[in-house]
Amino acid sequence: MIRWLKGIYHLLVAIASTCYFRFPGSKLTVIGVTGTDGKTTTSTLIYHILKESGKKVSMITSVHAVIAGKSYDTGFHVTTPTAFWVQKYLREAVDHGDAYMVLEVTSHALTQHRVWGIPFAIGVLTNITHEHLDWHKTFDAYVKAKSKLLKASKTVVVNKDDGNSFEKIGDLVRTKELITYGIRRTAKVSPETHAFHTKLPGEFNIYNCLAAFAVAQKLDIPFSTIRKAIQSFSGVKGRMEVVTTTPCQIIVDFAHTPNALTQALRTVKDSTKGKLIHIFGSAGLRDKTKRPYMGKASSEYADVIIITEEDYRTEKVEDIIDQIASGIPSYMDIYRYPDRKEAIRFALSIAKKDDTILITGKGHEKSLCRGTIEYPWSDQDMVMSLLSEKKS
Questions:
Q1: What residues does 307 pair with on adjacent strands?
Q2: Could you give the 3-state DSSP secondary structure of residue 44?
Q3: Cα-flanking dihedrals φ and ψ of residue 10, to 5°?
């Protein structure tokens, strides 16, 4: 009942906002990007390619919004803002003379009608993995929620290698122009047909680049411009961000799903000479079923596992840690630090020169929710603060 009421509320806000701002989406070429993992990097990369090609473009992602040349914070723990702000940003982009809008879209935003009234020219689906089952209840419902973006789009760009989503959405997009991308299965856009070089690490970023390449090609951006833009793209804050390489390599990443953790850990493990030290937790009042799988993912690659807080909200952080630990083999040592600062401090105390510390879950976020209060927080700033403290 509460969920239904939320949907009605957001729909009414969307209708009122769309009318109030005079249907701004109809005056833009809107590219929507959804998926469990890779949305932000893919969205930002599409924006970067369009900007490098000389197009006037704005974007809204979970990291921030860049509208009419100005950067805005999109708020705490938010990917797609409320319909009012989405429509307001669209109107500002139109008034600025922008021709394109890249919009990162969550399944929550789709089910809550936050993007109602926006005609999507292109819809991108990066993948669908285990996440948000606290809201969607079943995986099939989660797939259907993501597919709402594709149904609302004229052209659909889909990861053909993602069996979880590609097979299920086939019937849902039968009437759409379908552009596939992939590495393993035969796809329209692949590293063989669309060669490029990127600074971004990991196979998962190859997929992000392919999705962006597919969108840019559909928008008639020259191949040479796309390749040059992909090569110059340096990444997104909080996404495999190297904070420092002294006294060891320390990386902050937003990964907070089992699949994202696997991809990040695998990538970091391949480039680490010493031990991989992993610090992570799981958000409170969110999908509890993924927690053991997150623990399992860490155990498959990390040499040292440190479980800590991550926006535990009104749950007991110790309970969340126990649930994560239940997915880790009993023979492995686990370090439990309910305080995230102390978890990072401990990792710094044991790390050697050739080790890598990977801190996941917060990424770009600037707050940490304890109870009902948002406290200022940055993994990056805390790392540098503790390193400075050690030196003094």
A1: 280, 336
A2: helix
A3: -65, -35
Would you give the distance in Å from CA 207 to the centre of its chain? Answer: 13
* Ramachandran assignment for 220, one of left (phi > 0), alpha (psi -120 to 50 degrees), beta (any other): left
| Beta carbons of 130 and 259 less than 8 angstroms apart | yes
| Domain ranges (residues) in the chain | 2-232, 241-391
CATH of region 2-232: 3.40.1190.10
Whole-number CA gyration radius for the chain: 21
Sheet holding 304-308, edge to edge: 241-244, 249-253, 356-360, 276-280, 304-308, 334-337
The tens digit of pLDDT for each residue in 131-153 reads 655 555 687 888 888 889 999 99
Q: For residue 200, which of 208, 191, 192, 188 has the smallest C-alpha distance?
A: 208
Which regions of the chain are under pLDDT 50? none
* Percent above pLDDT 90 for the chain: 82
Distance from C-alpha of 245 to C-alpha of 247, rounded to nearest angstrom: 6
Helix segments in the chain, DSSP class H: 2-20, 39-52, 83-96, 107-111, 133-136, 139-151, 163-169, 203-218, 223-232, 258-270, 291-301, 317-325, 340-350, 379-391
Nearest to 185 by CA among 166, 161, 165: 161
**pTM for the complete prediction?**
0.92
Class of domain 241-391: alpha beta
